[in-house]
Amino acid sequence: MSIDTGLRQAELLGLRWPDIDFEGRTLTVRETLQRVDREYVLGPPKSETSCRTVALSDLSLKALRDEREAQIAARQVASRRCRETIPGLVFTTSLGAPRNGSSLTHALQKALHATGLRPLRWHDLRASTAASWSRPGGMTTARDRLGHSSIAVTSTF
User: Fold this and answer.
1) CA 52 to CA 14: how far, in whole Å?
2) What pLDDT, on a 0 to 100 scale, did the predictor assign at position 148?
3) How far apart are CA 68 and CA 105, in angstroms?
4) CA-to-CA distance for 14 and 16, rounded, in angstroms?
5) Is 20 exposed, middle or buried (0-12, 13-18, 19+ CB in 10 A)?
6) Could you give the number of structural domains in the chain?
7) What pLDDT score does 58 carry?
8) How crowded is residue 145: how many other Cβ atoms within 10 Å of its Cβ?
9) Cα(58)–Cα(2) distance, rounded to whole angstroms?
10) Phi-psi bin for 68: left (phi > 0), alpha (psi -120 to 50), beta?
């Protein structure tokens, strides 16, 4: 989903279910999730332009629906142990706690290794997305979709 949307890792982790418009096929970036002093904290995105609405592909919509179903099933099994400290997060552990960025990076590395691909940083996914978007729609489209403050920032990708 990160490759499809171009979201920063903290933006992805800060998504809540009300941010997803399944009928409109979009998501809206409103918050980011950061770990500060061993606690998870929701905060504003990196800049004003980082608050944005992003179109979702069929693949991302399916992934989100699957995640929602898995989340509901996991919560039913672990109802007494549920630790939903931040209500409505899209990406959580099976007990409802916020996902750690390190766990996402670890899962990415594991998937890359399993397919024989070289290791990548999470931000490399965003850079790949930026490169593909800047070709067909131009730098302005890429800037807007990535939530950059200027084309100069987008052109560094």
Assistant:
1) 13
2) 61
3) 21
4) 6
5) buried
6) 1
7) 94
8) 21
9) 14
10) alpha
- Residue 89: closest CA among 1, 139, 30, 26: 30
The pLDDT value recorded for residue 120 is: 86
For residue 154, what pLDDT is reported?
60
Residue ranges in the chain whose pLDDT is less than 70: 79-82, 84, 132-157
What phi and psi values does residue 65 have, to the nearest 5 degrees?
Answer: -65, -45
What is the pTM assigned to this prediction?
0.78
Is 43:51 a contact under the CB 8 Å cutoff?
no
140: three-class secondary structure by DSSP: helix
d(CA 123, CA 146): 12
Query: Looking at residue 11, which CATH number applies to its domain?
Result: 1.10.443.10
The two tokens of residue 38 are 């061993």
Q: Please name every residue paired with 43 in a beta bridge, in sequence order, or none if there are none.
A: 32
- Paired tokens of 79: 């109802």
Q: Which residues of 62-79 are buried (b: 16+ CB within 10 A; e: fewer)?
A: eebeebeeebeebbeeee
Interatomic CA distance for residues 96 and 82, integer angstroms: 6
Whole-number Cα distances in Å, 122 to 6, 85, 126: 11, 25, 7
Domain that holds residue 46: 2-154
Beta-bridge partner residues of 85: none
